[in-house]
Design goal:
The chain is 26% helix and 31% strand. The protein has 280 residues and is of the alpha+beta class. The protein binds adenosine-5'-triphosphate.
């Protein structure tokens, strides 16, 4: 006789919109929370709904969409964000954006601060890599991808997509090819609590950012800077554009880089460029 062992699905891996909303509390009172078992990309879903003229799908309020499993997660410039089923927190927050469009370049930095400070409340110390990654011990734990869409009524929406690794099967790690980190099990014991806390921090961040821009986040970001004072390379499609000592970010979110021989630091804008520690 063959005995088939079916692993019980841990209740911890099932997200509940009602519990997430309750944990998010009053800071996210105006936010709707939706949970789906599986989707391609939570960012793509929300962007499509913002742009859609179909009233039944339209977003009337800031909306958090969380997917238990995301099958076609995205990074910057068409890169892929890969996760195994139920082994990551993958979610996006769509927010009607009231600040000027040009301030958006600083938003991933503010969101990084919100994630790092929330994880610290869960006992997890992380660092930030300019412009949009969350690292733990030099390994990528979470990614941030912010995209925008304009609704038929001309309202601009920012869609803040976040993926946080909870586990990384060996095969997937090989596929990604770069070192990754996963959240310690204790921090993700109650995923609804973690997601609710992140939503609360993100809602506060979005409001603060709309009112005062990046100013409230610059010092906090620099305290969390993964490569402060270290030699780094700025790469464009694998080619070194700049090399120097990473000092931190300025008031609009550019990375200040002290190049060899330069009298004052140069300021790098986040386009589709990548940063690497020099010895990587
Ligand atoms: P770079 O690290 O070069 O600056 P990036 O930070 O812009 O790039 P993103 O586009 O945000 O990277 O994310 C996609 C990249 O992240 C992929 O090319 C891959 O290297 C890596 N990656 C994909 N999935 C994961 C994951 N689950 N955990 C950690 N890293 C991942």
């Amino acid at each position: 006789m063959t005995v088939q062992f079916i692993a019980p699905i841990s209740p911890a891996s099932h997200l509940s919109a009602a519990r997430i909303t309750a944990f998010a509390g009053y800071h996210a009172e105006q936010c709707r929370v939706e949970v789906v078992a599986e989707t391609g990309s939570t960012n793509a879903d929300l962007l499509a709904r913002v742009a859609s003229g179909d009233r039944s799908r339209a977003l009337g309020a800031p909306t958090l969409l969380a997917a238990q499993t995301q099958t076609a997660g995205r990074g910057r410039a068409g890169r892929a964000w890969l996760t195994a089923p139920s082994a990551a927190l993958t979610f996006s927050l769509a927010w009607p954006f009231a600040a000027p469009l040009q301030t958006l370049v600083g938003l991933p930095l503010a969101v990084g601060v919100a994630i790092a400070e929330t994880l610290a409340d869960f006992g997890v110390e992380v660092q930030l890599k300019w412009p949009n990654d969350v690292l733990q011990g030099g390994r990528k734990l979470a990614g941030i991808l912010i995209e925008t869409a304009t609704a038929p009524d001309q309202q601009l929406w920012a869609v803040v997509g976040i993926g946080i690794n909870l586990a990384m099967p060996e095969q997937l790690q090989e596929q990604i090819g770069r070192r990754t980190a996963s959240l310690p099990a204790a921090a993700a014991q109650d995923r609804d609590l973690l997601l609710g806390s992140l939503l609360s921090a993100l809602a506060q961040t979005m409001r603060q950012f709309e009112n005062a821009g990046l100013a409230a986040f610059v010092e906090r970001w620099n305290r969390l800077h993964a490569f402060a004072g270290q030699q780094v390379l700025i790469l464009d499609q694998g080619k070194t554009l700049h090399e120097g000592r990473a000092l931190g970010i300025d008031q609009i979110g550019r990375l200040l880089l002290q190049t060899d021989g330069g009298s004052s630091p140069i300021a790098i804008m986040a386009g589709d460029i990548s940063l690497r520690p020099k010895e990587d």
